[in-house]
Amino acid sequence: MPVPDPVPAEDLGIDYSDIEAKYSISYEEGFDNVLVVDGVPIIDRSRESRLFAKISKEFGRKGVPIKEGGIHMPYEEGSGKSKGYIFVEFASPEEASDALVAMHHFPFDAKHTFSINRFTDIEKYATLDETYVPPAVSNYTSRPHMRSWLADPAGRDQFLTYVGDEVQIFWNARTGPDPAFTRHNWTDLYVAWSPHGTYLTTLHRQGLQIWGGSEWGLVRRIAHPLARLVDFSPNEKYLVTWSNEPIVIPPGAQQGPTFFSPDDEGNNLAVWEVSTGHLLRTFSIEGTTTVASGEKKQMTWPQLKWSGDDRYVARVNPGQAISVYEVPSMHMLDKKSIKIDGVVDFEWCPPSDDELSKIRETEKEGDRDATGDGKKGKRNGVARVRENMLAYWVPEVANQPARVTLLAIPSRTQLRTKNLFSVSEFAWEPRGDRFAILSSSDPNLGNIAPGITIKMDVSFFQLEKGKNFKLLSTLVLTPDKTTNAIRWSPKGRHVVLGSIFPVTRFELEFYDLEFTIDPERINTHTAEWGSLVQHLATAEHYGVTDVEWDPSGRYVASSASVWRPTPEHGWSLWDFRGQELVKQPADKFKQFLWRPRPKTLLTKAQQKEVRKNLKEYSRAFDEADAAEESHADKELVAQRRRLLDEWNAWRKKVRPEVQERMARLGRKAKGGEDREEVEEWLEEVIEEIIEPRILLPLIIFRPEAGVRKTHYSRLPLDAPLSPFDPEQFLCHKVRFPSSTAIQDKYAVEWDLATSCGLSAAYIIDFD
């Protein structure tokens, strides 16, 4: 090998730094891009490639791909087994940071969960100085109160309307809607509340935005472009989004746990964690689904349905199976779907108040029954929570009737099966003790033709003491009924059966399943089975497209949206008895949404105490209502008095002009100051509201005499003051009070009763 010539002495002073920098070879320095992953399965060398492939796949699914050849696993020298941890190398320290956030505590399988640290942190803490140094105290930054509306002194609920491009939030006040917040162009598509009312979601072309707090600040962005549908889990921990456009990952797209990865490309449904914005998993679900018969049907929403405790999420493959996934790992339960031939749909049974209390207690104890054996008993003094239940239904096939089956999850135990005929609608009562089914045994079902009306039945089932569901009552609907929707009150007991779009007969039927004349004697367990079901009222809202209960279970909102081809748009409010309270037509009306409430934190004993003292609490609310009415009356009286004072001031101002005009007409003005007496009554009425009245002045001109007259009468406070034409006063005759002297002195031809509702007038001449 030839030896290079030495550098000439005259060239030693030349600066070659720019050339050296251009052609220098960079060496990676530092280990900021290296993570140590503990909790890895212990294997031998023969299974290394398979394990590395699976680990790389899991990291890639989270949007944090591992550098090629970047996994290093140490082995024991004697046994040849791995040590249970690996070193993972990424392209940059930033990607390593994203991977740490996304994969720390990740459940790799049923027996192994990752625990991740930075390689540099291990060395840092190994050489940590044992001398205590007080940490720096950072300034406290207050966060917005996400449930501030619950502190309303009047205990009012809120609702939202979307009309045109304006989103408005109102208080549902006793005197009518009270505006609380307004924003224009807040969303591109529509808005959606979270189940507890904590968040409001708006949809945009770039994705979703989640808002909250008293000032409605931005909480989080979800990067799902062109998302069209959104759904929260019952406890607001997770979010599901769907777009009709498949996910596309453009070159150079940002990667990380909050973004889609190349493995998600082509899918269109995504599951997110709300608190972090992390993507958990994506699915491929088209806008249309194919049933067992090969027929294509429109996709139903939500596609993923959550258990009441957010532990499981499930989806149905129509006609074939139900797939249940554990959260947050999103692994399929027992690694296989539940095969059910002909299954159409399913619903999770919502937990009752007692079960929610038990769930909270077990979560506090940290002793959740993960085995799901469903057995009764206690552990550490805390009652076990029963298994989750879901009800699925299979339509009528050949000679087999339709059936509804209750299934326990995760044990997959069939609890009960009930044969039915042609189920078309199913809805659980929110308390989880009852459910309703809309079905039909009409032979014409499936052969719909002009002039044929399908006869429908509504059946209510209730949980017995023996934990079996028994038929509570069946409502045989008349042939002219077109019921197609079941809407339970959030508090249970009351239900609305609706005939909503696309039917042509729009009716709302209100039912009470625990009706009794004496509420103190009600006992649903001792009463005759089904005897308490009572029809309360039938109402009509022409063109109704949506029906929704408020969180208190006292009001029902029906609305007709411009998104459906209905002739009238707007919304109406009803009470639980079916009485209409508010009717609000609105052009370009799109949405009406009640703001949900979170579950109560009161124990059963505390709730019982509240019901026991309900009369005392009601008295306080009645006094507050009376004070509010009195305040409103006082304001109206003050307004009327202000108008009277303005009139008197004007009268005093124009008096010299009137006297001057009288002098020109040859009439002698009266000396002294005219006096005007206003008579007032103060009435005190016990337990009765009397509409307050005051004296109001009206002016009359008699052109033929040039006389100005002032008429006083006792008018209702809300009586309109219409403008008067002086010429018309000569065409009618006035009715006077019983005063002969006044009747003899004046004869004014004017009927005050027909012009503004006056029954009498006092005439005072001040010319």
From TrEMBL:
SUPFAM superfamilies: DPP6 N-terminal domain-like, RNA-binding domain, RBD. Residues 357-375 have a biased composition (Basic and acidic residues). It comes from the Eukaryota. Residues 72-109 form the RRM domain. It holds the Pfam family eIF2A. Component of the eukaryotic translation initiation factor 3 (eIF-3) complex. This is Eukaryotic translation initiation factor 3 subunit B. It comes from Thanatephorus cucumeris (strain AG1-IA) (Rice sheath blight fungus).
